Structures are given as C-alpha cells and as structure tokens.
C-alpha cells in the first residue's frame, strides 16, 4: 500500500497535505499524531469513507479509488472503528454475517456462520463465542468481534483506529497477542495511536503526522519514544508571560479521591486536584482519558457512580447538581456545545439567560423581562464581538466560534469564582480562539480560578499557571508552567 | 443596516406565508378530488361548506361552537409538544375530564352557579390532569413511551365512560346510554338565542394564558428549553424530569377542561361517544397552527368552520362529513412536507429572491441572508 | 352443552384474533426496521373497504383480498415516502394516516356501497373443514373449521419468523431497526430495506382489514376497525416484538373480545373486558422498562452518511 501526494480539504482547511507513505505487506505500521493531525482523515480515505481530492492510493501495485467502505472491503481493506459499529441486540454471528452473501440462496445459515467464525477466531487466537449477544460482551470482546468482522470479509489490510483507547491493560496485552498472530499470518495492520509505549511495543514502522503533513517515517528500531514525542509535538512553545506568584491565595476548588465508574468501567480513579484564586490549571491529556468524566462529575452530570469529596471555596458539596454548582459560583463550558451547551433554535438572549433566568435581573414574579433579555443580548454581542445578522436570530444560524462566544458570555455573566472550561476553542479559527483566550486571562486576573481542559498542548502552555496531565482517569503528572517540559508532558500523556 | 435586514426578513416571512397558503390550497384541492371521486360537485360542496361555516351569523356562531373543543385539544397537544413530548391522548383526557366534571355537577349538593360551575370545570381539568399524569409518571419513572401509553389510555377512558353511562351513572328511568342532564348551576350559559356558549371565550382565554406561560414565564422558558435540547437544559440545571411530569399533567388538564366544556356547553349530559375524535383533530389543529397557541386559535377556527360547514353540506348533498377528516389528514401531510422536505427549495427560493432584490436595489447584504457557516 | 359452548367460544376467539394477528405482523415488520406505525387503524380501514369493493366488482372474495393488498401496499409506500424520504415525524404521519383512513372509507363507503340495510353484502371467505383433524373432539371444531384466511394467518406466523430470523434479508431488517448507521457502513441499503418493510406492512394491513370485512362481517361498516389497529400495536408490544409473541398476544386479546361478545351477562361489565388489552399493554411497557426489547432505532429517521455530507 502506498499513497502519493494525497490531499484532502474541508472547505479552506487542509486536513491532509500531500501525504506520501508506504506500508509494507505483513507489517504493523503505526500512525502517530496529536488530535487534529489528520490521522482520521487519512484512514477514512484508505477505508473508502472519504475520497481524496488529489493524489492517489496504490494498493497491491494498482491505483485504486473507493466509493464506499464496501468497495474497500471487497479489495481486502477493513477498518476497526474506535467507536464500534456493532449492533448490541444481535448475536456475534449475526453481526459478523450482516450485509454478506452467505453462499447461494436467501437463507441465513446460523450453524455455518458459527463454524466459520470459530474457525477464523481459532486460527488467530481470537476467542469469541458466536452465539452470544454483543450486549453481553465486554469492550475487549466486542473489539475482537470487530476484528473477526473484517477477517470474515477477507481483509488483508486492517486499519485500527485507537484500538487501545477503550481497553484495560490486560485486554491490551491480549490485543497485542492477536495482532502478532495476525502479522504472523501475513496480514498488514495500520495501528493509529498516540500512546507511544504501545507503539513501541508492537509496531514495526512508524509514521508521524503533524498538522496534516508527514513529519517522519522510520522503522521502529531506528527511533525511540522520546524522539517520536518531540517530532509529534514538533514545535517550540513561546516562553510564558511573566505571572504574579500564587502563594498565599485562597483555595477555590479542592477535589480529593474522586472516582467514577461508568457502565462497569473505572473512568476516574482516586483523582485529586486543587485550584486557587487567580490560577489557571491546565489539564493536558489525550482525548478520552477521563477529562469529560471529571467535568461531569464535578457538575453533577455524571451518569456513573461517583465517590470522593468536592469542596468549593472551602464548602463541601455533598451532592453536586448543576444548579447547586452554579449557585456556588462555578461556571461550566461543556465540551459539546451543540449537544450540551446551547438550545440551538433559541435566540442569543434566551441562551444567555439559561442559568440566570430566575434572578430578578431577568424575571419578576415568574415573568421574563424581554427588554432586559434583549439588553443583555445586545451587550454580549457588542462586548464579545459576536457576528450575527441580528440579536433575535437563532443561535443555530451562527458560526461555531460565535456560538462558543455565546456560551462564554453566559458563563462569565455569572461572575464565576471557578470556571470549568472544556476545549473552549475547539474548532475555532485563530482570531476567535485568541478572543476566548484573552477573556479567560482577564477572568484570571480578576481572581477567577479556571480549570482548563484541552487536548491541545499549545493552548495549555499558553494559558496555564500549572499543568496536570491526565491519563486513564488519573492525574499522572503535575508541574508549574515555568518548570514544565514539553517533552516530558508529551511522554506522560502517552502513558510513559 | 437595519433596513436591509428588514427586507431579508420580509422575504423570509413572505415565502413562509406563500408556502402556508399553497399548503392549504393543495389540501383543499385534494379534498375536491376526493369529493369529485365520491360523486359530489366540489364547487357546490365548498360553497355549501362556506355558507354553513360563515354564511350567516348563526353559521358563524356554530363555527365557534365547533372550534371550542378543537382549540382545547390543539392546545393540549401544543403544550406537550413544546416540551418535546407527544401527547396523543387528548381524546381520553377529554373523556375523563367530561366524566369528572359531570360527576361533580351531578353529585354535589345544589349550590349557586358561580360556585358550582367553576368547581365542575376545575374537576374536569383535574380529571384530564390525572389521565395525562399517568402517562407522564410512567414516562419519567419507568421510561415507558408516552406515545403508546396515551394511545392506550384513550381506549381505557372511552370504555370507562361507556361503562359509567350504561351502569352507575345511567339516567334513572332512561333507556339511552347517557347520564342525567346537568343541573342548571353546572351548565355554561349560552349567548341569547344561539348555541354559542361561554366555553368558547374560555378557550380563547386559555390560549392566551398558554401563550403567556410558554413565552413569557420562567417555567415556560424551562419547558421550551427542554423541548429544544433536553440534555442542554439538564446541564443548565433545569428540573427536566419534574417538568416532563408537570407538562403531561397540564397538557392533560387542557384536554380535560375541553371535555367538560363540551358537556356543559353543548351536550348538557354525559353520553357515550360524545367526542367524534376531538383529541385526534387537536393534533391536526396544533400542527396547522405551527404548535403556537395563537396559531392554534386560527386553525381551530378553520377546522371548526369546516366541521359546521360539512354538516350543512351533508344535509344538502348527502356526502359524509367525514370529508373533513380527509382534508385534515391531507393538510397534516402537506404541512409536514412543507416543514421537512421543502426546506431546501425554500432556501433556494429565498436566496434567489434576495439576489434579485439585491440587483434592483443593491442594498441587501449577503450576510443578512442568514447563510449558515459550517 | 357446556362443552359445545366452550368450543364455539374458542372458535370465535381464534376468528376474532386473526385480523389482530395479521395487523400485528404488519406492525412488526415496520417496527423491526425502525418504523413506528400508529396509523394501522387507518390502513386497516382502507383495507376493509377496498377488500369489499374488490370482492364486489370482481365477484370473487379473493379478488377482494388481492385488491386490499394492492391498495394498502400503495398506502404503505406513501407512508414510507413520508417517514423515510422526507424524514417527517412518524407519530404525526401515523395520526394523519388514521384520519385519512377514517375519512376516505366513510366517504367512499357511503357513495359506493350505500349504507344501512341497503349496504352491499359480499360473499365471505369460505370456511374449510379440514378432514380428520376437524374430527378431533374439542380442538377439532375450534381450530379446523375456520375460514381460509385463518389458516393462512396461522401459517404466516412461522413464515414471518423464518423470514426475520433465518434469512439474510431478515437479518438486515433487524439490523436496520437497531442501528442504521452501523448497518449502512456494511453496505446495506437502509432506506431500501425500510421501504420494503413499509410496503409489506401495508399489504399485510390490507389483508388484516379484509379479514375483518370479508372474513367476519361480509360487509363494510363505518369505522369498523374500532380500535383493532391499536390493539394490534399492543399485541406487538405485549409480544415483545416477536412473531410468536405477537400471535400469542393476539389470541389473548381476541379471546377477551370473544368473551365480552359471548358472555355479556358475566360478572365483569363487558367494557372492562374491552379495556383489557390496553391496560395489559401499559403494564407490560412499565414492566419492560430498562430491559426493553423495542428495536433501538424505532421512531428515528435516518439519513445516510452520503446524504448528510451533501
């Protein structure tokens, strides 16, 4: 498999910029890169979900062009998605067979399917029971079903998107065993990850992507983890602006022993942190290491079982609830602004008051004051430079960056003492992101404590006073910004 | 420049109005086809419907009488819908409201009208709230679909009323399945010399109150927020689950009130099958009224008019009043197509119009076209 | 005497459960592909009327059944277009379908067939006595002296089971109802499957409607379905979205219906017997909660990945 000058654009954004890579038969090839480096785009093109704008893909010596995942599949390229494409209510066998012609005739032959699956799973050391329903399986077992699915379709070339992200350590070991046995039988595997240790353990070659471009490609034996981390991050960070010292400041938020189990998985493990007045604590880490669960547990939005203690300004919070946290002076910028942050069909004003509508500023005797809501909207539009045709427009009509400004305006209108900001600039252009950064710094100056969760190291380095690294539901490293070492943080993020 | 935005807005409004009118016209046309197929001259039939609906002051009053239960049912659907819930159970809630109201009218000791009538109306309201509340509680507590449960409750209510008027509540000495007639103190007064009763004005008042609650109060704001984005409303700290239960109760109570109003204003006694499907018609009323309380008033008047007109038509031509159902159904389908399917067409038309206007006046900025940045 | 009464009761129960069973299977098909059809009432009415019309004009009762299938197949296609292609809300379209069915059948029933005593009567579906089997005491006369449609309905249940659980197509249907996105990535045409289920559902609704008008009453009367479309929906829910479960629930509900018709003077007022299916369904729904067997994608419209990017 080879790609030549592969280019993919989304609007004006170039996700993949002239990528040339070679993947040899029978190797385990790692693709490394930070969030947004273009790994997923590349893989989606290889597996037929997206078509390249320029360049070509050469597979088995012939140029190919896939119109759909099915076409890629028919050529022997299979993909194991990070979020499994399984149907819980159906059995393993049914999930594997679905969409396939099973010999002649319209019948679904269960016994034959089970036999085929058993045969495949035995030859690769994948232990799955084809009779079981997928809903009864553990995450690791579900992943095996996904692998069997690609093998059943005759895949020679298997792409795995962050396969270890959802697995426990023993399950990871097991997966590695399977991968080795696949390799031994001549299958080619592309292993997407940002966990260096795992890449080191299993892969033969490694390709590093950075900002849509190829940053490095070499045999695993010729490189080491530290070097890869540097190539992956690949930039020098501006020296921190001088910050006043924080000694003797009051503690605003103190969390100790916070644990959370969500549908059987320990997503937070005995996590402790504290946040002082006028401080920005940056939580660095790769997506999916418990950052979202941390914020949800703090706001009382978690669907799992939470234990541990939370104190806001010295007061213990017995049972966190979003309203109680708001009243305690905690603001929250959720990660997914469309799903959790905004009522899209409502106007800017109606979104602005979502946490304060009961206050006398906006309502009297249970009646909303339209005038004041419009005033607030007008003030926010001017103050935050929100681009909108009019203040009465639905926020669904605004661009992503302007929607985020509406959320920011709402949270800062609360004059919060503590602000939980999750990915506050995700998907925003540089200018709008800078606006948000300036706002956060201004709040910090006013004494607000900010918990900044970001998967972009650069953002964390630019804003934070202290940096904590989250890995698998724990804080594995905490350091002052002044003493922070980018490389070390990169390694910690990868679990080293 | 505000003038440009105003022009862009005017374009939007006129396109929406245009499509609305087209939708109604298409429905009436489809109705005409059905009439023609059934051997009735559509021109004559529509003339008769128009005469029967608005041809005289008597006809107009009859339209208002017919619109009353439809408006209550429409408001009931609207209120739940705005919270993201489907209350298909207005029919059952109407029956239970009528039952509870009638019981309080018949069983309470005699008292003056200014106490008895409000009390009976309140009991009707309570009955509806109870019936809606069952579905609401099952939804919140057990996660059971309110759609299915409200449908099931409709039939339970209908059979319960059938039992009551053939059994315990049957008029002493009567042979028909109906209750004794209401005492005067529990009857809605009628305007002199007509069938129009004060229930109609109560319905209008209710529509205004519902509008006020939904659009102006903090509670209505919570309801709308949850209707647009349940998860976001939870993140904002609003009591979404409690509101879902309350909304189902209020939604039910609107239908229940409508049920007793129909009894106290028109029938004056509880009887089997007194509602020819008001509850289901309410869904059509709400959809045509764009699930807006004031829009409901207009569409209830339209459907009320069609109903009283269809009665007149049936008397003359012999064609069934059920034609109204056909027109209503087609209207729902056309409105739904308008909302879900023609969005792209409308957008293109709007952009084209704005470009045209732009060429002639050169003032409308592209930004005002509300183009979506992705 | 006593025994005879019970046998005739059992025969009636089975006869009355046939329309429920067929309509239930229709709903099941649509439900399994992720489409909630609360418009069965209207579809069945259209089936009842077109069945009688077909039988009247062709002079053959099977011509009537085929007409009903064809007409309702088109109705199912229309339903499919509205909920699949336009993505309109399934509850709303279902309600419209009920109104449409009631309105159209009343208008055309009157204009084409007359009403009251002058109403057109047609031949009913012939009763076939299966030799030998019908001679079995008790069971024989109850089960094997039924009309042809009853036998067909009873055979339809295993047929549908076979189709859904033992064919590749059935597997695709079930997968579409559970997770259209995952099914789409495996190259299954989600919309095509749903359209097919809507058409099959429509055709079965036609049979169910004519089972009522041609199998039981020999004529069309206004609003003759009288809630059976919703009882069929209950039967599917109570039968936990399986063909066999739907059949059992239909027999149970049919039995309740026969009970109230035959024994109007028993201790329980007949209205409570009529309520029985609905109350039972509500109880079942509350009971299932958390471990619901409802196809996960029920009621949700799906736009294919390609459509969404466009």
Report on the architecture of this protein:
The complex is a heterotrimer of chains A (496), B (374) and C (310). Chain A is 33% helix and 27% strand. Chain A is an alpha/beta fold. Chain A has three domains: 232 residues, P-loop containing nucleotide triphosphate hydrolases (Rossmann fold), CATH 3.40.50; 156 residues, P-loop containing nucleotide triphosphate hydrolases (Rossmann fold, 3-Layer(aba) Sandwich), CATH 3.40.50.300; 63 residues, no CATH class. In chain A, helix 8 packs across helix 17 and helix 14 runs parallel beside helix 15. The two termini of chain A are 31 Å apart. In chain B, 75% of the residues lie in helices and 0% in strands. Chain B is globular. The two termini of chain B are 24 Å apart. A two-stranded antiparallel ribbon of chain C has the order 1-2. Chains A and B meet through helix 10, helix 11 and strand 18 of A and helix 8 and helix 9 of B.
Index terms:
heterotrimer; A: 496 residues; alpha/beta; Rossmann fold; six-stranded mixed β-sheet; 17 helices; B: 374 residues; mainly alpha; 0% strand; Simple sugar transport system ATP-binding protein/simple sugar transport system permease protein (chain C); transmembrane helix (chain C); transmembrane (chain C)
The strands making up the biggest β-sheet of chain C line up spatially as: 1-2
Residue runs with pLDDT of under 50 for 5 or more positions of chain C: 305-310
Neighbour order of strands in the largest sheet of chain A: 6-7-8-3-9-10
Calculate the mean pLDDT score of chain A and round it: 84
Structural class by helix and strand composition of chain C: mainly alpha
Secondary-structure element pattern of chain C, one letter each: HHHHEHEHHHHHHHH
Low-confidence stretches of chain A: none
CATH topology of the largest domain in chain A: Rossmann fold
Tell me what the CATH architecture of the largest domain in chain A is. 3-Layer(aba) Sandwich
CATH topology of chain C: ABC transporter involved in vitamin B12 uptake, BtuC
The helix tally of chain A amounts to: 17
At the fourth level of CATH, the homologous superfamily of the largest domain in chain A is P-loop containing nucleotide triphosphate hydrolases
What about the largest sheet of chain A? 6 strands, mixed
| Overall pLDDT level of chain C | 87
Largest interface, chains and sizes:
B-C, 51 and 48 residues
Distance between the termini of chain A: 31 Å
The helicity of chain C comes to: over 70%
Structural shape of chain C: globular
Q: What is the rounded distance between the termini of chain C?
A: 72 Å
């Amino acid at each position: 498999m080879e790609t030549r000058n592969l280019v993919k654009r989304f609007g004006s954004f170039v996700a993949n910029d002239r990528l040339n890579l070679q993947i040899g038969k029978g190797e385990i090839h790692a693709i490394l890169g930070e969030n947004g480096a273009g790994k997923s785009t590349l893989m989606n093109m290889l597996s037929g979900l997206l078509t390249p704008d320029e360049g070509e893909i050469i597979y088995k010596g012939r140029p190919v062009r896939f119109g759909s995942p099915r076409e890629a599949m028919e050529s022997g390229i299979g993909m194991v998605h990070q979020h499994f494409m399984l149907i819980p209510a159906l059995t393993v066998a049914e999930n594997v067979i679905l969409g396939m012609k099973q010999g002649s005739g319209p019948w679904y032959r269960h016994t034959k399917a089970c036999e085929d699956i058993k045969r495949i799973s035995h030859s690769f050391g994948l232990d799955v029971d084809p009779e079981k329903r997928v809903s009864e399986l553990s995450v690791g077992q579900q992943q095996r079903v996904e692998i069997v699915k690609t093998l059943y379709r005759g895949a020679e070339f298997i792409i795995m998107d962050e396969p270890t992200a959802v697995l426990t350590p023993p399950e990871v070991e097991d997966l590695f065993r399977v991968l080795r046995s696949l390799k031994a039988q001549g299958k080619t595997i592309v292993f997407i990850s940002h966990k260096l240790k795992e890449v080191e353990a299993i892969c033969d070659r490694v390709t590093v992507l950075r900002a849509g471009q190829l940053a490095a490609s070499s045999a695993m034996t010729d490189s080491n983890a530290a070097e890869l981390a540097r190539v992956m991050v690949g930039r020098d960070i501006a020296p921190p602006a001088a910050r006043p010292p924080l000694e003797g400041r009051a503690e605003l938020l103190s969390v100790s022993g916070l644990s959370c189990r969500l549908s059987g998985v320990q997503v937070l493990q005995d996590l402790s942190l504290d946040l002082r007045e006028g401080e920005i604590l940056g939580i660095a880490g790769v997506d999916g290491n418990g950052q979202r669960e941390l914020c949800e547990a703090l706001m009382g939005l978690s669907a799992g079982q939470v234990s541990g203690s939370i104190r806001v300004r010295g007061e213990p919070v017995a049972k966190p609830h979003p309203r109680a946290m708001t009243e305690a002076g905690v603001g929250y910028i959720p990660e997914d602004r469309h799903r959790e942050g905004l009522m899209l069909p409502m106007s800017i004003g109606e979104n602005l008051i979502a946490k304060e509508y009961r206050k006398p500023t906006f309502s009297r005797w249970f009646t909303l004051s339209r005038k004041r809501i419009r005033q607030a909207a007008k003030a926010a539009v001017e103050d935050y430079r929100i681009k909108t045709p009019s203040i009465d427009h639905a926020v669904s009509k605004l661009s992503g960056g302007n929607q985020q400004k509406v959320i920011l305006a709402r949270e800062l209108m609360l004059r919060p003492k503590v602000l939980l900001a999750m990915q506050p600039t995700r998907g925003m252009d540089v200018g709008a992101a800078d606006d948000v950064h300036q706002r956060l710094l201004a709040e910090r100056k006013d004494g607000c404590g900010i918990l900044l969760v970001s998967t972009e190291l650069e953002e964390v380095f630019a804003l934070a006073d202290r940096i904590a690294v989250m890995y698998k539901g724990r804080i594995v490293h905490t350091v002052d910004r002044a003493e922070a070492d980018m490389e070390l943080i990169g390694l910690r993020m990868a679990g080293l | 420049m505000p003038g440009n935005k105003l022009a862009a807005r005017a374009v939007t409004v006129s396109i929406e109005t245009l499509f609305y009118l087209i939708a109604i016209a298409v429905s009436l046309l489809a109705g005409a086809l059905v009439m023609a197929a059934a051997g009735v001259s559509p021109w004559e039939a529509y003339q008769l419907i128009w005469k029967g609906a608005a041809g005289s002051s008597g006809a107009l009053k009859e339209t208002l009488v017919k619109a009353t239960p439809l408006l209550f049912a429409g408001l009931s659907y609207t209120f739940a819908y705005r919270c993201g819930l489907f209350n298909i159970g207005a029919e059952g809630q109407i029956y239970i409201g009528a039952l509870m109201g009638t019981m309080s009218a018949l069983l309470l000791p005699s008292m003056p009208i200014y106490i008895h009538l409000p009390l009976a109306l309140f009991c009707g309201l309570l009955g509806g709230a109870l019936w809606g509340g069952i579905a609401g509680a099952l939804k919140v507590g057990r996660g059971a679909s309110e759609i299915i449960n409200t449908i099931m409750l409709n039939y339970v209510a209908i059979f319960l009323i059938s039992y009551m008027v053939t059994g315990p509540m049957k008029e002493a000495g009567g042979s028909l399945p109906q209750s004794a007639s209401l005492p005067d103190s529990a009857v809605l007064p009628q305007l002199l010399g007509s069938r129009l009763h004060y229930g109609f004005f109560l319905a209008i008042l209710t529509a205004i109150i519902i509008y006020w609650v939904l659009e102006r109060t903090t509670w209505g704001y919570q309801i709308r927020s949850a209707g647009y984005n349940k998860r976001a409303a939870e993140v904002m700290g609003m009591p979404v689950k409690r509101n879902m239960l309350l909304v189902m109760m209020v939604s039910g109570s609107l239908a229940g009130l409508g049920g007793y109003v129909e009894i106290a204003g028109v029938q004056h006694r509880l009887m089997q099958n007194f509602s020819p499907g008001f509850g289901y018609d309410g869904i059509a009323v709400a959809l045509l009224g764009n699930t807006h309380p004031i829009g409901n008033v207009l569409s209830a008047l339209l459907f009320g008019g069609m109903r009283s007109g269809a009665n007149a038509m049936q008397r003359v031509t012999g064609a069934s009043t059920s034609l109204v159902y056909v027109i209503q159904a087609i209207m729902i389908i056309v409105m739904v197509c308008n909302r879900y399917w023609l969005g792209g067409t409308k957008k293109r038309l709007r952009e084209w119009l704005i470009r045209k206007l732009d060429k002639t006046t050169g003032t409308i900025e592209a930004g005002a076209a509300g183009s979506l940045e992705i | 005497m006593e025994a005879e009464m019970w046998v005739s009761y059992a025969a009636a129960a089975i006869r009355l459960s046939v329309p429920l069973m067929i309509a239930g299977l229709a709903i099941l098909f649509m439900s399994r592909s992720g489409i909630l059809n609360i418009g069965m009432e209207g579809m069945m009415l259209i089936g009842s009327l077109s069945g009688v019309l077909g039988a009247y004009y062709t002079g053959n009762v099977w011509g009537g059944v085929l007409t009903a299938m064809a007409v309702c197949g088109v109705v199912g296609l229309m339903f499919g277009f509205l909920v699949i292609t336009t993505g309109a809300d399934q509850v709303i379209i279902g309600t419209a379908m009920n109104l449409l069915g009631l309105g159209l059948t009343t208008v055309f029933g009157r204009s084409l067939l007359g009403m009251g005593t002058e109403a057109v009567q047609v031949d009913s579906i012939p009763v076939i006595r299966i030799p030998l089997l019908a001679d079995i005491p008790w069971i024989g006369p109850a089960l094997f002296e039924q009309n042809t449609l009853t036998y067909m309905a009873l055979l339809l249940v295993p047929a549908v089971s076979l189709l859904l659980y033992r064919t590749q197509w059935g597997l695709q249907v079930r997968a579409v109802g559970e997770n259209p996105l995952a099914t789409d990535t495996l190259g299954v045409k989600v919309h095509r499957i749903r359209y097919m289920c809507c058409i099959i559902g429509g055709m079965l609704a036609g049979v169910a409607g004519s089972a009522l008008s041609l199998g039981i009453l020999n004529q069309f009367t206004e609003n003759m379905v009288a809630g059976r479309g919703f009882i069929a929906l209950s039967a599917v829910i109570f039968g936990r979205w399986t063909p066999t479960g739907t059949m059992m629930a239909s027999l149970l509900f049919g039995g309740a219906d026969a009970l109230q018709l035959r024994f109007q003077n028993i201790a329980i007022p007949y209205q409570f017997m009529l309520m029985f299916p609905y109350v039972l369904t509500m109880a079942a729904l509350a009971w299932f909660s958390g471990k619901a067997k409802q196809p996960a994608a029920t009621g949700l419209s799906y736009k294919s990945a390609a459509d969404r990017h466009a």
